[in-house]
Task: inverse folding
């Protein structure tokens, strides 16, 4: 449906940051090579979420990077974001797809092959699968095995991104799984040089994905 480059999927975490710091890191991440990004705000009011999303969208538009809003289709629609990401306790993908038709990217969090197949059938454009490792964010996570990740990649025909505690030093475990990219939070948000971190991660991910494709693992 939509041609997506999910090689380096950057997810924000504004915990402990003021607006200017969040916007600065966001811009550096995009300048460094993040190919898609998600604004994730679990504890903001709707009004605050929309206010932040408008500012972040101005940045992402300058870099021509799709902005995905976590959880909230209403916020995504309010700021004309390129997409929304839905978890297993959020609005069903099928319902969201009926509302936005084909005008918006819809991502889904899945942890099993069954969930992945259902999300794809319901209209998801990509999947986030994990957590592969424990995370330092405040988002509750349940670990997903690499074997399950590999099974999901084999089962669906849409991009699959690994998520959860991933950084440049531990992504090697993902070789041969068939992923289209990785999602990172702390590896960029907590870096002393977010632009450099994003650049290095993007290069590493492209090499990892290329090596997988050369072995005929990806679809």
Result:
């Amino acid at each position: 449906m939509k041609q997506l480059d999910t090689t380096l999927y950057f997810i924000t975490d504004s915990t402990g940051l003021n607006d200017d710091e969040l916007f600065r890191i966001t811009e550096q991440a995009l300048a460094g090579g993040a190919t898609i990004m998600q604004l994730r705000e679990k504890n903001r009011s709707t009004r605050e979420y929309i206010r932040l999303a408008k500012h972040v969208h101005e940045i992402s538009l300058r870099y021509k990077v799709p902005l995905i809003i976590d959880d909230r289709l209403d916020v995504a629609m309010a700021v004309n974001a390129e997409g929304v990401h839905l978890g297993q306790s959020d609005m069903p993908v099928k319902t969201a797809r009926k509302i936005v038709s084909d005008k918006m990217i819809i991502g889904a969090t899945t942890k099993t092959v069954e969930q992945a197949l259902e999300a794809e059938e319901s209209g998801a454009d990509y999947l986030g699968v994990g957590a592969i490792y424990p995370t330092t964010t405040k988002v509750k996570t349940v670990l997903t095995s690499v074997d399950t990740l590999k099974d999901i990649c084999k089962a669906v025909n849409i991009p699959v991104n690994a998520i959860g505690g991933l950084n440049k030093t531990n992504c090697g475990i993902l070789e041969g799984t068939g992923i289209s990219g990785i999602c990172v939070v702390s590896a960029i948000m907590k870096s002393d040089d977010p632009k450099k971190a994003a650049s290095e991660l993007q290069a590493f991910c492209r090499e990892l994905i290329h090596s997988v494709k050369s072995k005929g693992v990806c679809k």
